[in-house]
Amino acid sequence: MLDTKQMALVVATATAMLAATTVSAVRAQSAAQFGQNLVANGGAEANVGAPSNAQIVKPAGWTTTGEFTAVQYGASGGFPDATSPGPKDRGKNDFEGGNVAKSTGTQTISLAPSSAAIKSGTVRFTFSAWLGGYASQADDATATVAFKDANGATLLKATLGPVTPQQRNDVTGLLLRETSGSVPKATTQAVVSVVFTRYEGAYNDGSADNVSLVLAK
After folding, report:
1. 129, 210 contact by CB (below 8 A)
2. Which letter, b or e, does each residue of 171-210 get, where b requires 16 or more Cβ atoms within 10 Å of its Cβ?
3. pLDDT per residue as tens digits for the range 38-53
4. How confident is the model at residue 16 (pLDDT cuts 50, 70, 90)?
5. 142-159: pLDDT as tens digits
6. HEC per residue, the chain
7. In b/e form, how buried is each residue of 16-52, taking b as 16+ CB within 10 angstroms?
8. Are the beta carbons of 131 and 143 closer than 8 angstroms?
9. Using CB atoms within 10 A of its CB, is residue 99 exposed (0-12), middle (13-18) or buried (19+)?
10. What is the C-alpha separation between 17 and 19, in angstroms, rounded?
11. What percentage of the chain carries pLDDT values higher than 70?
12. What residues contact residue 31 under an 8 Å CB cut-off, 6+ apart?
C-alpha cells in the first residue's frame, strides 16, 4: 500500500500528465484550423446537385433561406457547364439561387481552438469565392465573412462581389474574387454567408462556387 507521500506523488504525476495531454490536444485543434478551408462543403460537392432549374437540393453544412441550392454543372436551364468561365477544380456542382428573388446560405465557424494565436494579433485570413451569373442578366451573388467576438458583435466584415454582367462579358460563368487581412484579436467566430439576388427572369441566376476561408499565422 502506498503511503501518503507516495500517493501525493502519484496524484501529482497523473495531474501533470493530464494537463500535458490537454495542452497537446488544444494545440492540435488550433493547428488544424490553419492552412485549410474552414468552410464546410464550400464547393457544393457534398450532395448530388439538381439536374435542372426545376429541382432544389439544399447543400449540406449550410443554413439556408429561399431556395439556396446545389446544381450540377451543365444542368438543363442555362447553368454554367464544364467549359464556362470558372474554377479549374470546379467539381460537379455549384451553388445557385433557385426560383425566388433572394436566397442565402450561412455558416458559423467557431475559432475558439485558435483563440490564443488570434489574441496575439498574428493571425491572417484569406477569403475567396468564385461568383457569377447568367449571360447578360443582372442576377448576382455576394459572399461575406464577418468576424465576431464572444458577444456576437461584428469586429470586421469583408464582402466579395457582386460580379457584374459586364465583368463577365455577358457570358454565363464565374470569376474569382479574393480578399485578405488580419483577424481581429477578440474574434471567437467567423460567419460566412452567400447571398443570391434576382433582378430579372424567373430563376435567380446568381452563381457561386469554391467558397473558402483560410487562416494563417
Report:
1. yes
2. ebbbbbbeeeeebbeebbebbbbbbbbbeeeebbbbbbbb
3. 999 999 999 999 999 9
4. very low
5. 999 999 999 999 999 999
6. CCCHHHHHHHHHHHHHHHHHHHHHHHHHHHHHCECCECCCCCCCCCCCCEEECCCCCCCCCCEEECCCEEEEEEEECCCCCCCCCCCCCCCCEEEEEECCCEEEEEEEEECHHHHHHHHCCCCEEEEEEEEEECCCCCCEEEEEEEEECCCCCEEEEEEECCCCCCCCCCCCEEEEEEEEEECCCCCCEEEEEEEEECCCCCCEEEEEEEEEEEEEC
7. eeeeeeeeeeeeeebeebeeeebbebbbbbebebbee
8. yes
9. middle
10. 5
11. 86
12. none
- Residues counted in the chain: 217
Contact indicator for 84, 174 with CB cutoff of 8 Å: yes
List the grid coordinates of 196: 443570391
Amino acid at 44: A
Question: Distance between CA atoms of 163 and 174, rounded to whole angstroms?
Answer: 8
Q: Which three cell numbers stand for residue 160?
A: 466579395
